[in-house]
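[job 4471] stage=fold_predict status=RUNNING
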Amino acid sequence: MEKIAFLGLGRMGRPMARRLAAAGYPLTVWNRSPGRAGGLTEAASPAEAVAGAGIVVTMLSDPHAVAAVAARFTPHLAPGTLWIDMSSIGPQAVAGLRAQLPDGVAMVDAPVIGSVGPAADGALGVLAGGEDADLERAEPVLAHLGRVRRCGGPGTGAALKVAVIGGIVASVTVLHEVLAVAGELGVSQDVALEVLAAGPLAGALARARSTESDFPVRLAAKDLALAGGGHPVLSAARQVLLADPSIADLDLSAVVGALRED
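[job 4471] inference complete, writing structure tokens
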């Protein structure tokens, strides 16, 4: 098994790193805030973490964070290293990072669909983009984290994540107004929820009522911004997410209100 360096031990990263360690991979981890390794071998710097690693995995919060950390480790990557970025940063950021890679270093973009529970259970949806040979090498590692879908060439995994998460976040966000309209028209919330649960918005409603998901509102707003301008519905949903700073670190369901099932 190739040695893996895993950078980023946040809500999602730490359970993912633990799964790779449990699978038997020699693993070194690093996090911007030290002390989150929880028994895993922790490096003092990104450069130290990637030393001798055949595969580097990053799971960071946004394009700025990935670029800042990448600047600290990419100069130290040896030819033949494969970098798998699993952050949600969009295809433009992926293209910029690929352009700065040292000769002989490859990259796969593999953002995920799912929250903390699936991350711990190895049940994430992994959207992988890259050259065929690099995807072939990455897939055995990614398979420990979830179901891998090969999306195509470089940047396609990142692109599909932007599209899919946009639909998920906007659908959950609109439920707030849907229920408000129902209330204004004299429809009880219980009745509205019952009918919504039996129709096309059932998935969005289930997500809004989840007690296991942990996807902060601020990160949902970040993901919507990755779609760029010119998308009025996604832009409006993002403004709703940003309107109440008090819920920024709460799960996305907070934007809808107290709908969670007992």
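[job 4471] summary: The longest strand covers residues 146-152.
[job 4471] exit 0
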